[in-house]
Write a structure and sequence with these properties.
This protein is an all-alpha fold and 116 residues long. The chain contains six helices and no strands.
Length: 116
Protein backbone atom coordinates (compact mmCIF):
# COMPACT_ATOMS: atom_id res chain seq x y z
CA UNK A 1 0.00 0.00 0.00
CA UNK A 2 2.90 2.36 0.73
CA UNK A 3 4.28 1.69 -2.76
CA UNK A 4 0.96 2.72 -4.31
CA UNK A 5 0.92 5.90 -2.22
CA UNK A 6 4.49 6.77 -3.29
CA UNK A 7 3.53 6.31 -6.95
CA UNK A 8 0.48 8.53 -6.51
CA UNK A 9 2.43 11.26 -4.70
CA UNK A 10 5.22 11.37 -7.31
CA UNK A 11 2.69 11.49 -10.15
CA UNK A 12 0.66 14.19 -8.38
CA UNK A 13 3.74 16.33 -7.71
CA UNK A 14 4.55 16.37 -11.43
CA UNK A 15 1.04 17.58 -12.27
CA UNK A 16 1.26 20.26 -9.56
CA UNK A 17 4.62 21.46 -10.91
CA UNK A 18 3.21 21.74 -14.44
CA UNK A 19 0.23 23.80 -13.28
CA UNK A 20 2.37 26.11 -11.14
CA UNK A 21 4.97 26.71 -13.83
CA UNK A 22 2.28 27.25 -16.48
CA UNK A 23 0.71 30.07 -14.43
CA UNK A 24 3.79 32.20 -14.96
CA UNK A 25 5.33 30.67 -18.09
CA UNK A 26 2.61 29.03 -20.25
CA UNK A 27 5.08 27.86 -22.90
CA UNK A 28 7.47 26.29 -20.40
CA UNK A 29 4.56 24.68 -18.58
CA UNK A 30 3.43 23.24 -21.90
CA UNK A 31 6.94 21.92 -22.55
CA UNK A 32 6.96 20.12 -19.22
CA UNK A 33 3.44 18.80 -19.81
CA UNK A 34 4.38 17.57 -23.28
CA UNK A 35 7.21 15.45 -21.96
CA UNK A 36 6.13 11.84 -21.83
CA UNK A 37 6.49 11.86 -18.03
CA UNK A 38 3.31 9.87 -17.42
CA UNK A 39 4.40 7.29 -19.99
CA UNK A 40 7.91 7.07 -18.57
CA UNK A 41 6.62 6.79 -15.00
CA UNK A 42 4.14 4.18 -16.14
CA UNK A 43 6.95 2.20 -17.74
CA UNK A 44 9.07 2.46 -14.59
CA UNK A 45 6.20 1.36 -12.35
CA UNK A 46 5.25 -1.47 -14.74
CA UNK A 47 8.86 -2.69 -14.98
CA UNK A 48 9.23 -2.64 -11.22
CA UNK A 49 5.99 -4.58 -10.81
CA UNK A 50 6.47 -6.98 -13.74
CA UNK A 51 9.96 -6.98 -15.33
CA UNK A 52 8.92 -8.70 -18.55
CA UNK A 53 10.56 -7.37 -21.73
CA UNK A 54 7.83 -8.70 -24.03
CA UNK A 55 5.07 -7.16 -21.94
CA UNK A 56 6.96 -3.85 -21.73
CA UNK A 57 7.55 -3.76 -25.48
CA UNK A 58 3.85 -4.34 -26.13
CA UNK A 59 2.93 -1.61 -23.63
CA UNK A 60 5.32 0.97 -25.10
CA UNK A 61 4.25 0.23 -28.68
CA UNK A 62 0.55 0.51 -27.77
CA UNK A 63 1.29 3.79 -25.98
CA UNK A 64 2.76 5.18 -29.20
CA UNK A 65 -0.35 4.29 -31.18
CA UNK A 66 -2.65 5.79 -28.54
CA UNK A 67 -0.74 9.07 -28.42
CA UNK A 68 -1.65 9.76 -32.05
CA UNK A 69 -5.44 10.01 -31.57
CA UNK A 70 -4.93 12.28 -28.55
CA UNK A 71 -3.06 14.95 -30.53
CA UNK A 72 -6.01 16.59 -32.38
CA UNK A 73 -7.46 17.70 -29.03
CA UNK A 74 -4.45 19.99 -28.56
CA UNK A 75 -5.33 21.75 -31.80
CA UNK A 76 -9.11 21.82 -31.38
CA UNK A 77 -9.28 23.26 -27.85
CA UNK A 78 -7.20 26.41 -28.58
CA UNK A 79 -9.14 27.06 -31.79
CA UNK A 80 -12.41 26.82 -29.91
CA UNK A 81 -11.17 29.06 -27.08
CA UNK A 82 -10.02 31.69 -29.58
CA UNK A 83 -13.47 31.62 -31.19
CA UNK A 84 -15.27 32.36 -27.94
CA UNK A 85 -16.19 28.88 -26.77
CA UNK A 86 -15.92 28.61 -22.99
CA UNK A 87 -13.13 26.58 -21.43
CA UNK A 88 -15.30 23.77 -20.03
CA UNK A 89 -17.28 23.15 -23.23
CA UNK A 90 -14.07 23.32 -25.31
CA UNK A 91 -12.37 20.85 -22.99
CA UNK A 92 -15.39 18.53 -23.01
CA UNK A 93 -15.58 18.58 -26.81
CA UNK A 94 -11.82 18.01 -27.06
CA UNK A 95 -12.07 15.05 -24.68
CA UNK A 96 -15.07 13.67 -26.59
CA UNK A 97 -13.08 13.92 -29.82
CA UNK A 98 -10.18 12.08 -28.20
CA UNK A 99 -12.47 9.34 -26.89
CA UNK A 100 -13.99 8.97 -30.33
CA UNK A 101 -10.57 8.73 -31.94
CA UNK A 102 -9.48 6.20 -29.31
CA UNK A 103 -12.49 4.08 -30.23
CA UNK A 104 -11.57 4.34 -33.90
CA UNK A 105 -7.99 3.33 -33.06
CA UNK A 106 -9.07 0.31 -31.02
CA UNK A 107 -11.35 -0.77 -33.87
CA UNK A 108 -9.06 -0.02 -36.82
CA UNK A 109 -5.66 -0.70 -35.27
CA UNK A 110 -5.95 -4.50 -35.13
CA UNK A 111 -7.22 -4.52 -38.74
CA UNK A 112 -3.83 -3.05 -39.70
CA UNK A 113 -1.88 -5.52 -37.57
CA UNK A 114 -1.40 -3.26 -34.54
CA UNK A 115 -1.31 -5.01 -31.19
CA UNK A 116 -3.29 -2.75 -28.89
Amino acid sequence: MLYLAVKAVISGVIIAIVSQVAKRYPGFGALIASLPLVSVLGMVWLWRDKPDASNMAAHVEATFWFVLPSLPMFLLVPVMLRHGVGFWPALAIGCALTIGLYLVMTWAGPKFGLRL
